[in-house]
Amino acid sequence: MAEPAAASTAAIYRRLVAAQVRSQLSYRVSFVLDLVSNVVFLGADLLTVLVVFHRVPVLAGFSLADTLLVFGLASLGFSLAELIVGSIDHMQRHVRTGLLDAVLIRPLGVLWQLLVLDVGLRRVGRVCSGLVLLAIAVRLAEVAVTPANLLLLVITPVVGAVFFGAVFVATATVAFWWVDSGELSAALTHGGRDFTSYPMTVFGGWFRRLFAFGLGFGFIAYYPALILLDRPDPLGAPAWLGWCGPLLAAAAATLAGLIWRTGVRHYRSTGS
Amino acid sequence: MNTDGRHGGVNVIEAHGLRKDFTVRVRKGLLRRERRDVAAVDGVDLAVQRGELLGYLGPNGAGKSTTLKMLTGVLHPSGGRVSVCGLTPVPQRILLARRIGVVFGQRSQLWWDLPLRDSYELLRHIYRVPAAEHAARLRRCRDLLELDPFLDTPVRQLSLGQRMRGELTAALLHGPEVLFLDEPTIGLDVVSKQAVRGFLAELGQTGDTTIVLTTHDLADIERLCRRIVVIDHGRVVHDGGIDALHARYGSQRRVTVDFDTAPAALPDLPGVHLEATTGPRLTFTLDNSASVGTLISTLTTLGSLRDLSVTEPEIEEVIARLYRSEGRAPSPRFP
User: Which SUPFAM superfamilies does this entry report, sorted A to Z (chain B) (predicted)?
Assistant: First the structure.
């Protein structure tokens, strides 16, 4: 049998996403409420930043505008990942309800089917507010409009989305072995988002090194933001680190893919 | 592809020594846990020819669903060989998926919040079925399963019976060579059960589709399957016709008589056993060798009969006996 064309596979997934949109719009009121509450959520996070800067004009060497830029890059990347991949959090439920089995008997990839069948479109709200926030931050921080900066502004949220998506998938897969893995997953995804949302000079020694380099979260918003702000790293790291995101994202996605495959293989040999 | 089941004479499903071990962790003390391997499927041999309609029976936890999951490529066998449509299910999952249909009685392939019709359209794309073929198959299912009244209703609003008819259709629209049904009539009302059974009987008669059916409803089996495979504790304990099962497990006919007054004496005939006495009512069970006629003529000499009934052996009872005997003694393996 000929290998199915990638284009037509993409078309199938487009249809599946469209079906999900129709499904979720069939509960119109609930959908609108969810959408609104998701916008409010981001607002609450943003409020924290504003409260801090109401007290101090400069936080660990960064002004409000600078911090908002970091915050905007991080939350746009994270909310994109949450929109597309966040539902993988329900892995345990998929196993229990048999959705995983149902997906295994269809002629499509397992991970993408699960993501598409469970995608939470109300999270579009967060992506939108993330976009608005980033646009405002770019203005306030007076980011120079150069081709390089524009490119970086586009790829950084994408890198963030891929990276956070990889973290979502990798930690959800752990649920195959370890039922109560929700805490670990939350620590890495939401913890990682909180870390990336602030200039990392805010954080202390080993914790900063662990999250920034050990886990790679420094490359999601902080280093790219330094390039956009055209300022050297107070911690002395070279500027080119800001361009390393795509490499990191590719590595993270590959690793997450391997972990996922191992997890599914484990499920198929243990049935749990 | 010359080894696939499309060519006559070749088994569509073949399993040799198929097994599945699950590791169970048993708590021993505060931190210590003991791992134990439990065989859910313990060396199942199975050969199913194209067009067969096979009933796969067993008590809860016997390994029915696990076997089905190995045949459909959901689970990886721990041992043994398995091939379905000439394919090895797990590594060739996607190829196999296009050639089999699966209905799990307790979970859905349908889109809960969308009209039934939309699910079929989505499945058409997922399975890449040409529009004309798809339409023809849907037309047939619509007629036979009477889907038209609820084709535009969101699946979540369907009754269980309507949903199951919808599920069956969903599993057939890509023209599978093998249809696996895991308890398709569970929880259905009598009318829906009959609709589903009638449909499967018709599907089975055409001989194009091989059907493997697990069920607890023995009426399904009697109505549909000429061949049944019974498993218990992960092993095949019977593979053959229903008649063979009756013969082997000594199915007993039952004669119930009501006397005007309880008789003083009881008949003493070979192969006839008194099962119960409630006042003037006596119930006898008869081995295959015993004659109902002889029993009745003997009974008439013992007192005046008011009423009399003869009950043919029920498959339910045979199966119950089978489970009980297998539960205690080591299983007699069938070739």
Answer: P-loop containing nucleoside triphosphate hydrolases (SSF52540)
Distance to chain B for A105, nearest Cα, Å: 5
B108 CB within 8 Å of a chain A CB: yes
A259 or B331, which is more confident?
A: A259
Tell whether B97 is within 8 A of chain A (Cβ).
Answer: yes
Does B139 contact A at CB distance below 8 Å? no
Annotate B60-89 with b (16+ C-beta within 10 A) or e (fewer): eebbbbbbbbbbbbbbbbbebebbbbbbeb
For chain B, 335 residues long, the average pLDDT of each consecutive 10-residue run is 47 93 76 79 92 88 88 92 93 93 85 94 94 94 92 93 92 94 86 88 89 84 86 88 75 84 82 85 83 87 86 73 60 40
Would you state the structure tokens that stand for residue B110, as one six-digit string?
């349908």
Interatomic CA distance for residues A142 and A131, integer angstroms: 17
Task: Name the residue ranges covered by the structural domains of chain A.
Answer: 28-270
Q: Please tell me the distance from the alpha carbon of residue B232 to that of residue B12, in angstroms, as a whole number.
A: 23
Q: What is the pLDDT of residue B96?
A: 95
> Do A105 and B20 lie within an 8 Å CB cutoff?
no
Q: pLDDT tens across A68-117, in order? A: 999 999 999 999 999 999 888 888 888 888 888 889 999 999 999 999 98
Give the one of B20, B95, B111 whose C-beta lies nearest to A23's C-beta: B111
Q: Is A4 on the interface with B (CB under 8 A)?
A: yes
Report yes or no: B72 at the A interface, CB cutoff 8 Å. yes
* β-pair partners for B239: B229
Indicate the length of chain B as a whole number.
335
Q: Does A96 touch chain B (CB under 8 A)?
A: no
> Tell me: the pLDDT tens digits for A127-138?
888 898 899 999
Q: Which string of b and e fits A39-55 if b means at least 16 CB within 10 Å?
A: beebeebbeebeeebee
Residues in chain A: 272
Q: Which two tokens stand for residue B180?
A: 């696996």
User: Which residue, A164, A162, A156, is CA-closest to A221?
Assistant: A156
Which residue, B227, B235, B229, B214, is CA-closest to B332?
B235
Q: B177 in helix, strand or coil?
A: coil
Of B76, B106, B118, the CB nearest to A268: B76
Q: Report the helix count and the strand count for chain A, using DSSP H and E.
A: 12, 2
Answer yes or no: are the C-beta atoms of B57 and B232 closer than 8 Å: no
- Rounded to whole angstroms, how far apart are CA atoms A2 and A239? 47
Residues A188, A215 contacting (CB under 8 angstroms): yes
Residues of A in contact with B127 (CB under 8 A): 106-107
pTM score of the predicted model: 0.80
Handedness of CA B220, B225, B227, B229 (dihedral sign): negative
Residue A167's nearest CA partner among A57, A50, A81, A233 is: A81
